[in-house]
Fold this sequence. Notes:
This protein is α+β, with helices and mostly antiparallel strands. It folds into two domains: 52-89 and 204-293, no CATH class; 92-202, no CATH class. It has four helices and 17 strands. The protein has helices at residues 8-12, 18-70, 117-122, 158-161, and strands at residues 79-82, 88-103, 108-112, 127-131, 137-140, 152-153, 174-175, 178-179, 181-185, 197-210, 218-224, 230-236, 241-246, 262-268, 271-272, 285-286, 289-293. The strands form four sheets. Strands 1, 2, 3, 4, 5, 6, 9, 10, 11 and 12 form a ten-stranded antiparallel sheet that branches. Strands 13-14-17 form a three-stranded antiparallel sheet, covered by helices on one side. A hairpin with a 2-residue loop joins strand 7 and strand 8. The longest helix is centred in the N-terminal third of the chain and has 53 residues, at 18-70. It is elongated and about 120 Å long. The chain starts with 7 loop residues before the first helix and ends in a 7-residue tail after the last strand.
Amino acid sequence: MLTPMPSISMRRRQGFTLIELMMSMVILAVIGVAFTRLILSQARFFDRNYAKRQARQVGRNSINLLTSDLRMVQDSGGVTVAAANGKSITVIVPYWYGLVCSSTGGTLTASMLPVDSATKALATYNGYAYRNAAGRYVIVQPSNPLSSDAPAASASTPTCTGNGSGQAQLATLTLNGRAGSVMEFKPGNAALTAGTPIFAFQKITYAFASSTTYSGRVALWRQPEGGTNEELIAPFDTSSRFRFWITGTDTSQVTVPTLDKIRGLDLVLNGAAVNTLVGDASVKQSKLTTAVYFKNVRSF
C-alpha cells in the first residue's frame, strides 16, 4: 500500500518559537499595564470630580434652605442670639401677616392674609409682632404659644369684616384659592388701633454642629423653638460659619456686634465631600460665601 507524500506546504509549516512567545507576552504585558494605568487614572479623575460635585451641592443646597427664612428677618432686633464663634444664630422669622381689627388687654383680633398651607403647617408658632409708630415691629411672646396661647379662629368675624361702629371694615381676602382668616392672638394690647400691621413668627436656631449622619463631620441644623431639631444637610468643613453685616461697613465681620445692629449675614458654606480619596490628605472642599440682607426693613 502506498503512503501519500506530504505536500510542500505541509512540510514547510512551522510553530511559534519560544522567543516569539516571550516577545508576545512582553508586548501584551506592556499594553496591559498601560491600559491599567489609564483605567486607574480615569477612575481617580471621575472620583475627584464626583467629590467636588458633592462638596458644591452641600453648599448650594443649603442656600435655599437658609435664605427662605433669613430674608424675612427684621433688620433690627431680628437676631436674638449669636454664638461668639459664629457657629449658631437664633432669628425671629415671620410667616403670616395681617392687620389688627381690634384689641383688648387680653385678646387681639386680626384679619390675616392668605398663606401657603405647607408654610403654615410646618411653622412652629412662637408669638406675634405689631408695628409701632416708629416703624419697628414690637415682639409679643406669650407664655404658652403652643397650647393655651396659640392663635385660634375668631368666633366674631364681623369685628373685622363688618361696617358697623367699632368694626374694622377689613375684607377677608382669597388669593389663588387660598383664603384669608380672622384670628385671635393672646395677649392683646389695648393701645393698638385697627389697621396696625402684625405678623406671626417662629423663632429658629440655625447651627453648624456635629453630624449624626456622618460621624466626626459637621452638619447644618435647624430647630424652631418648641419644635424638632433637624439635621438639614451635611457634611460641611469646620470653617463653615456665620459672619455679620452692620450699618456703615462694606465688609462683614467675624466678631458678633450688638444684636440690634445686625442688618444681614454672610453665610460661609464650605461644603465637603463624604469620603477622603485615595492619595489625598483631606477631603475635597467647595468654598461658598453668600450674603443675605434682611428684607423686613423698619422705617426711619
